[in-house]
Structure formats: C-alpha cells, structure tokens
C-alpha cells in the first residue's frame, strides 16, 4: 500500500475547453488541471518503482480548510464533519487518478475500487492511498457468485 499527501486545497478536474483557430476547433485541458496533475505525479513518482499491474484500489480523503470568516464555535463544530459543497468527489477523484496514470498504474481503467470522502479540517490537503487488489479476493467473489462453489 502506498500513501501520500497533496498539500493545499483539494482540486477538482476541470472540463476540457475549446477554441476556434483558423476555422478549426481545438480542444485543450485547462492549465490549472495540467498543473495539479503534474503536482500529483511529482509527489507519487518516487513512491512507485513500477506501475501496479492488475486491479487497483484508490482511496482519497479531501480535507477542506474551515473558512476563517466563520465564528470560532462554527469552526470547531465543522472540524471532521462532511464537506457538502463544491467541488464534487468524482471530479476530485478524476484529477488524482489522471495524475497517477502511468505512475501508479498503466491506465485509469485498472482502478476497480475507488472511494472519495470530503471533510472539513484545520488545513487544506488531500490524502491518497493506492493499493493493489489481491488476485484472489474470495470474499468479494463469494458475494457475486455465491459461496460454496469450488
């Protein structure tokens, strides 16, 4: 299992942008998204000697800093509670997964089990955990096809 922290406000993948130049549409990824994905890759690269083969489990905990404008009481109550504002978990997950492609795994399609949780905290940061899923996950197989069959 590999774990690491991305300092700063959790980032959600932005939609591709399009422009028209010389009568042709050109689609590109926004600079902020490219920058965040590069940051994830830079942090993760030393932790993965080679990409994981097979199915992968991805866990993300996005921690958002409680606004300074809130009262001390409201700040204290918010710490550890679920964050239910934008950005969406799926977009945070996409940004992290795309940054880990070709470093933690060969392709995003290997992520077979993913979970993202958003919480309020004292500091803004994103915790990421990546783990190979064992080839024989008997408990899951038994849930799908039923136990007892050998």
List descriptors.
150 residues, alpha+beta, 4 helices, globular
Task: Compile the SSE list and pairings.
Layout: E1 2-7, E2 17-21, E3 24-28, H1 31-44, E4 56-65, H2 72-78, H3 89-100, E5 111-121, E6 125-132, H4 138-145
Parallel strand pairs: 4-5
Antiparallel strand pairs: 1-6, 2-3, 4-6
Helix pairs in contact: 1-3
Structural summary, described in words:
The strands form 2 sheets. Strands 1-6-4-5 form a 4-stranded mixed sheet, covered by helices on one side. Strands 2-3 form a two-stranded antiparallel sheet. α1 packs across α3 (89-100). By secondary structure, it is an alpha+beta fold. The model has no long low-confidence stretch (mean pLDDT 91). β2 and β3 (24-28) form a beta hairpin. It is globular and about 55 Å long. It contains 4 helices and 6 strands. It is 27% helix and 30% strand.
Please tally the β strands and state the result: 6
Helix content: 25-40%
Low-confidence stretches: none
**What is the count of DSSP helices, taking H or I runs of 4+ residues?**
4
Radius of gyration: 19 Å
Write a brief structural summary:
The protein contains four helices and six strands; from the N terminus they run E-E-E-H-E-H-H-E-E-H. It has helices at residues 31-44, 72-78, 89-100, 138-145; strands spanning 2-7, 17-21, 24-28, 56-65, 111-121, 125-132.
């Amino acid at each position: 299992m590999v774990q690491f922290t991305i300092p700063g406000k959790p980032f959600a993948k932005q939609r591709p942008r399009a422009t028209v130049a010389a009568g042709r549409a050109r689609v590109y990824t926004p600079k902020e998204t490219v920058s965040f994905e590069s940051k994830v890759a830079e942090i993760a690269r030393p932790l993965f000697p080679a990409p994981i083969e097979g199915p992968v489990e991805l866990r993300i905990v996005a921690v958002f800093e409680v606004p300074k404008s809130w009262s001390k009481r409201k700040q204290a109550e918010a710490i550890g509670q679920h964050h239910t504002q934008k950005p969406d978990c799926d977009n945070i997950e996409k940004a992290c997964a795309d940054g880990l492609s070709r470093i933690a795994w060969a392709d995003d399609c290997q992520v077979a089990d993913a979970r993202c949780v958003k919480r309020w905290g004292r500091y803004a940061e994103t915790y990421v955990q990546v783990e190979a899923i064992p080839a024989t996950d008997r408990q899951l197989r038994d849930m799908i096809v039923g136990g007892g069959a050998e």
